[in-house]
Amino acid sequence: MDKIKLEGIVQNFISIIPLFKKKLLHDSCKFDKGNLNHSHFQILTVLKKYGKSPISDVAKKLFISTPNMTKLLNKLIEEGMIERIPGEKDRRVINIDLTEKGNTYLENRFFEIQSSLIDKISSLPEDKLDKLNDSLLTLKEVLNEISSDI
């Protein structure tokens, strides 16, 4: 493919991320409630998607260093959101998993975010909503085709 075209695609992609955060996620993803921040939320989300996992795997998926991961996990354990589980085959491997409280917290946050996003996009005309939906489906399809090491 033409290098100029690829550079244009990359530039569009890079410019849409801050716009997406500013227009859609800025207010809905604030963590004013409680003591958890965005990094805690990401850890919980990874555990929801992948289930019980070694700490090192979760850290790699989120690009978090081991010392930072330990601090974040300690807070989540203190809040009762996750639990540490020794490895069954190798006790040196420590797994983490969501607790019921962590799962409930995630479900509530997802509902809050979903409600906020619905409020924001509901003012769009029907044809724009259809176009947005089609574009998001296409973007999701294309992103799934891009290889990733994670």
TrEMBL record:
Keyword tRNA-binding listed: no
Listed GO MF terms: DNA binding; DNA-binding transcription factor activity
Pfam families named among the record's database cross-references: MarR (PF01047)
UniProt keyword Transcription regulation present: yes
Domain HTH marR-type: 1-148
SUPFAM superfamilies: Winged helix' DNA-binding domain
Annotated InterPro entries: HTH_MarR-typ (IPR000835), WH-like_DNA-bd_sf (IPR036388), WH_DNA-bd_sf (IPR036390)
Key words of the record: DNA-binding, Transcription, Transcription regulation
Protein name: MarR family transcriptional regulator
The organism of origin for this protein: Romboutsia timonensis
